[in-house]
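Task 17 of the worksheet. Students: predict the tertiary structure of the chain below and write it out as structure tokens. Keep your answer in the requested format; marks are given for formatting as well as content.
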Amino acid sequence: MPTAPLRGSTDPAGPPGPPAPPPGPPAGRMVAWLGRFGPVAVGYAVFQALVGLLPDGLFGDTARYSLAVVSGLGTGVSAWLAGALLRARSAAGGGADNGGGDLDGVPSPRRPRGRATTPGAAAPAPGPLPGLSAATYATLVDRLTVFDDPLRGRLVGWPHALDEQPEPVRPTPTGTAYGLHTVLELGMPDGRLRASELVETLWRLRLPEGGWAARSQGAVGRPEVTGLVLGALARAGADPRLLAAEAERCTERFSRELEPAGTELTHVVTTVLRGLLRAAPESPALPLLRDALVDGAVTDPARGHRRCWGSRLTPPRGRAVPPSAVHTAQAVVALDRAARVLGEDANARATREEGIRWLLSCPGPAHDGCEDLESGHETVRRPHPVDASRHEVLSVRHFAAAWVVRALLTPDAPAVAADEEREAVWQETLAGAAASVWRQQENGIWTWDGVDLAYPLWMTYQGLSALRAHAVWMYQPGG
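Model answer:
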């Protein structure tokens, strides 16, 4: 399979340039025509014309030439001012019509406009998202791996990262699940990527005793990977009966006795909760997971004693859990989805809204590069399933800016901000987070710089889905 460069490539199907401006009214065309000669030329032309037209007997040659000079100067200045006014109006109108960007290429909301009535009126130029989406899809097609496994059969999907070598690389549950999410996000514009093949591959990667695990986790299903895969399968329309059976196996093992490490971690609990809400919305485990997440919130004195979340839901050996923006955003998103499926009581709602207020209380002076948007990582450490003297270590990286965007775009977030008259803060924080997400991609692929495997597929999915959600929020149809 040919290898396309991930950096510096050019998408041939990118968005076209802005359309040419429509012809203006007659007066505007006359000014534009005169402007081609420049104000000095226009003034000189008027001077010469008046010298030739004014009668010789008009108060002598001095008066005649003086009148022509004054008229020429006045006409030249008027032409210059008219041209400057037209250029300023064009620049202002173009910025509004074309969705001019506020922060690093992220377009600002378009104001509603009435239906165009002037024949030949130009439509707004497309924003950058269509080209980005096309580039993402092209890279997914180019990096798709087909691997003939002697035990599991034909596998079609992706590894954990897009730059893994040598090729072909065996698809993994994590990479293929995030790839499937991305394909569904893009809407599958053609048949080069088939959701049915990806779904079949994920079922073939299922472990013999049920569940899915990351490549570094061995032969025992782990709840965070199983929740991720179940969510992707459910979104693709997999058999609900198979999903329910697999979800039941997952929840049976997800207990403090069998999974002490996972039940204490915010990332694991929120991932399982989101996956089960898609795959098994009637699971009796969902209220328990929701309540564990609510009870695991901590209070942050630095931000008005608002409740938020850290990386752990239970303090390790009595130590305090430091607040974390990415884990607070993950909890807000999970609790929002749970509320829509399960409903919520007053305590759950208040805790979720406190998490939004905590995110809006970021003390950073610039919200497109503040501390809350700094991506990080954590380590999930478990006893090895075979050798108890060893540990199974999973490194988890978090795309903080993408999670903050998703949390601030939950349906209740604008109302929470409005209750405290902080709509401007919400808009500024959201725009800053979206700008940070945009900056971390190149040709539709997000990068995690400074380490090996710098093109993780999960990051591309999270970045793309965050920007598309932001674009949907900004959409304002014309009147």
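Marker's comment: The radius of gyration is 30 Å. The chain is about 50% helix and 10% strand.
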